[in-house]
Amino acid sequence: MTNADPRELLKFSELAHRWWDPHAEFKPLHELNPLRLKWIDSQARLAGKRVLDIGCGGGILTESMTLLGAQVKGIDLSTEALGVADLHSLDSGVAVEYEEIAAEALAAREPGTYDVVTCMEMLEHVPDPAAIVVACATLVKPGGWVFFSTLNRNLKAYLFAVVGAEYIARLLPRGTHDYARFIRPAELAAFARRANMQPDQFGGITYHPIGKQFALSSDTSINYMLSCRREA
Questions:
Q1: Which residues form a coiled coil (predicted)?
Q2: How many helices (H) and strands (E) does the chain have?
Q3: 76 belongs to an annotated ligand binding site
C-alpha cells in the first residue's frame, strides 16, 4: 500500500491550480521558501549537486534549488500538483524533472543516487512518517544531506499552527493540518538515527505577524527544520 492519505492528496490536488499564486492558499509557502532555501544551501552548497525534492507539490522549492545551480528532481503523488509544476517549469524556463512516484518506490529503484534529499512540509501529512525518513536515507548517497521540515506536537503548536493560522489569521485553509500527526523533534531525530542518519542541526521557524515575515530561530516549539547526514 502507498504511504499516503487519499484525503490529504485530494485536499492539495483541489488547490493545485493556485500553487503559484503568492496571494492565495499557498502564500505561506512562498513567504517561507527563501528562508528554508537559504538554510539548506548554507549547509549542503546546492550548486552542482544532484537533488531530490520529495513531496514537491507545485515546485516552489524545487525550482528555487535549480536556480542555485542544482540538478533537481521533484516527486509527488498528486497528478494535479505535478501538472502545475510542469507547466510552471515550462513557463519560467527553469528545467526541473518531475515524476509521480512514492518515495519508497523511488528508493527501491534509485538507492544512493542523490547528494541532497529534501522533504519539507510533508511528514505531518502521511500515515507513516518514519517510512518516509527511511526512504530519504536510502535515496541519499553516503555522506549526503537530508533535510526535513515539519510541525512540533504540543499545545503551543496546536494553538498557533492550527487555531491561529487556520481559524483566526486564516493564513491557511481550515483542515490543512491534523494535530495528531505533528512530530516532536526528538521523535524525528530518532527516526533519522534508526535510518542510519546522524541529525546535524535543528532550525526553528518563527512568524512575526506585524511584519508578516518568517525568521530562523532556536525556537523549535512550532515549525522546525532538521538537517541530517547519512552515515558513510
A1: none
A2: 8, 8
A3: yes
